[in-house]
Amino acid sequence: MNGITALHDKSTLLRSVEHYCYQIAFYVLDNASDAAAASEQALLSLAGDPRFASAGADERRGMAKKAAVACAMLRARERCAANMRKEPHPHVANE
After folding, report:
1. What's the pLDDT tens digit per position in 23-69?
2. Is residue 65 part of a domain?
3. pTM here?
């Protein structure tokens, strides 16, 4: 198999889980732009994993789910940290 064919095959495999990654990320984040960024990171992670290309369909779907959840949670932590930096003083109830 030449390099172009291998790249095409990997691209096809990634496309097969692209929407699934987005759905999972959106479920976790409830925000379209964050879900798009998280699913992009998940797909990049999968593209770099040599096991992804040789896995069966069910295993690839499981790998995609795990990557999407991990990237969505990372995105949520980053968003939370950014929001904490914006708030100069913590608010105390009944103050």
Report:
1. 999 999 999 999 999 999 999 999 999 999 999 999 999 999 999 99
2. yes
3. 0.81
Structural domain span for residue 22 = 3-86
Look at the chain and report how many structural domains it folds into: 1
Q: What are the DSSP calls for the chain, one per residue?
A: --HHHHHHHHHHHHHHHHHHHHHHHHHHH--HHHHHHHHHHHHHHHHT-HHHHHS-HHHHHHHHHHHHHHHHHHHHHHHHHHHHHH-SS---TT-
- Do 75 and 29 touch, CB atoms closer than 8 A? yes
Q: State which H helix or E strand residue 48 sits in.
A: none
Tokens at 57, concatenated: 């369909």
3-state secondary structure of 94: coil
